């Protein structure tokens, strides 16, 4: 495309123009880079630099609605799950940390704290609440909810500090979980709800290797060459601009159901290997097994593995962060696959509709299916002191936690319209239909290793006193 055409091209958002300029300088970028800029970029990022600062991504007037926004019962049961873990882990009188990554508007943590408030001994054991949030606007929204509008706050190297209105405990906002020290005497209770699905993914496709001779160290390529089989390599899917004259670009395999504006970017297959394709698909035997099948496509999320390893180190200790006695728990609730590798799962969401993920950068939420098996693998490799339970369907988890009974309690004495709303909300959370939240969403728990002697509540176990 010529320079004059590009100078005249009208971009849908400032971020779209910035992306084009960056790609024009460096060439096509990995899908993960595109996602990162769209979600947390300084110029018009969906979460970190919204064009319209009064815009709310959540709720009926936003782009999507999450489980805590659907029903208060969801957050109450998550809070109760951590109470059960605190009881099962000998009820320590101090050192408990509550950590939430990607807290949204703070609704989930508010419901959790309201529930924990009813258990004074656990509430007293909590030292601090940590909210890991990259968006300045969302941090302010969370502070108003959890601490009160206009509540005083102080800044430190760790982040923003205030005092919660429910438990009177310190609440600290950090941009990254790395700002929270890993301390061997702490019991971290970590919750990640619809967090992992927003982490950037890399996509790779298996293709015949280039004609350049195999390196002596590449035993896989050499072995197949000796056997007469075509040597294969992983190529990376990259993002590049579409032609300015294309009125109906084809972003396959990510064709959207509805799109308000044409896609300005598209996926293309790299002509050779990239630094990511040479390393990431070799990080697990699950990926390596697919390499020799031409056209195999895999999605890999390195950030998810890093977070899972961090959770595991906090709970079970690691060589870098030894812990005399594993303690704590992590609860991950998200949508994704339980026994397969995600493929072609990238989606754009805007105003409660599926849209093209390559249209209107910064105005469209991007997400991809979570690879729960990869999370479990990363957690157990990172620490010998943890074990993983699940994933189980969200419907199973919530029903075992007592969602029916809690909803029934809320409807007693309520007006019919309110009771109907409560009933509709909880049933939506456990809907087992093909696309129902109870089936698509899953729960996974990371716990202190105990040789499988105890299963946690919600995963087939009970409270151990």
UniProtKB/TrEMBL annotation:
It holds the Pfam family Methyltransf_28. Keywords: Methyltransferase, Mitochondrion, Transferase. Gene3D superfamilies: 3.40.50.12710. Belongs to the NDUFAF7 family. It is found in: Mitochondrion. InterPro entries: NDUFAF7, NDUFAF7_sf, SAM-dependent_MTases_sf. The lineage of its organism: Eukaryota, Fungi, Dikarya, Ascomycota, Pezizomycotina. One of its GO terms (biological process) is methylation. It comes from the Eukaryota. Arginine methyltransferase involved in the assembly or stability of mitochondrial NADH:ubiquinone oxidoreductase complex (complex I). Its EC number is 2.1.1.320. This is Protein arginine methyltransferase NDUFAF7. GO terms for cellular component: mitochondrion. GO terms for molecular function: protein-arginine omega-N symmetric methyltransferase activity. Residues 207-220 have a biased composition (Low complexity). Residues 207-227 are annotated as: Disordered. It catalyses: L-arginyl-[protein] + 2 S-adenosyl-L-methionine = N(omega),N(omega)'-dimethyl-L-arginyl-[protein] + 2 S-adenosyl-L-homocysteine + 2 H(+). Transmembrane segments: none annotated. It is an enzyme of class 2 (transferase).
């Amino acid at each position: 495309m010529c320079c004059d055409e590009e100078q005249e091209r009208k971009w849908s958002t400032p971020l779209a123009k910035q992306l084009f300029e960056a790609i024009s300088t460096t060439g096509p970028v990995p899908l993960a880079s595109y996602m990162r800029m769209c979600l947390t970029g300084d110029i018009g990022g969906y979460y970190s630099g919204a064009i319209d600062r009064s815009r709310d991504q959540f709720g009926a007037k936003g782009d999507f609605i999450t489980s805590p926004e659907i029903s208060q019962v969801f957050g109450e049961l998550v809070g109760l799950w951590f109470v059960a873990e605190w009881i099962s882990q000998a009820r320590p009188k101090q050192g408990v940390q509550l950590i939430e990554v990607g807290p949204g508007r703070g609704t989930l943590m508010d419901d959790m704290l309201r529930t924990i408030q009813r258990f004074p001994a656990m509430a007293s054991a909590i030292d601090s609440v940590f909210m890991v949030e990259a968006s300045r606007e969302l941090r302010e929204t969370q502070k108003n909810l959890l601490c009160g509008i206009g509540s005083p706050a102080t800044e430190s190297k760790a982040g923003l500090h205030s005092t919660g209105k429910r438990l009177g405990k310190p609440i600290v906002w950090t941009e990254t979980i790395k700002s929270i020290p890993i301390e061997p005497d702490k019991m971290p209770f970590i919750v990640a709800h619809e967090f992992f699905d927003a982490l950037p993914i890399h996509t790779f496709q298996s293709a015949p290797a280039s004609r350049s001779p195999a390196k002596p160290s590449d035993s896989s390529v050499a072995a197949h060459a000796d056997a007469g089989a075509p040597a294969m390599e992983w190529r990376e899917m990259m993002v590049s601009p579409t032609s300015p004259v294309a009125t109906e670009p084809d972003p396959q395999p990510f064709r959207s159901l509805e799109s308000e504006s044409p896609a300005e970017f598209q996926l293309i297959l790299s002509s050779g290997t990239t630094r990511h394709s040479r390393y990431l698909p070799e990080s697990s035997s699950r990926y390596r097994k697919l390499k020799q099948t031409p056209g195999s496509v895999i999605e890999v999320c390195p950030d998810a593995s890093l977070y899972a390893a961090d959770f595991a180190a906090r709970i079970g200790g690691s060589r870098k962060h030894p812990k005399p006695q594993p303690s704590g728990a992590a609860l991950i609730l998200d949508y994704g696959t339980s026994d397969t590798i995600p493929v072609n799962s990238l989606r754009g969401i805007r105003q409660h509709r599926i849209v093209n993920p390559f249209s209107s950068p910064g105005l469209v939420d991007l997400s991809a299916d979570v690879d729960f098996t990869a999370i479990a693998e990363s957690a157990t490799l990172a620490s010998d002191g943890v074990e993983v339970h699940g994933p189980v369907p969200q419907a199973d988890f919530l029903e075992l936690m007592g969602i029916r009974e809690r909803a029934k309690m809320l409807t007693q004495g309520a007006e019919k319209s309110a009771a109907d709303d409560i009933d509709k909300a909880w049933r939506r959370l456990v809907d087992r239909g093909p696309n129902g939240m109870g089936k698509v969403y899953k729960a996974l728990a990371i716990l202190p290793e105990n040789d499988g002697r105890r299963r946690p509540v919600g995963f087939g176990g009970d409270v151990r006193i």
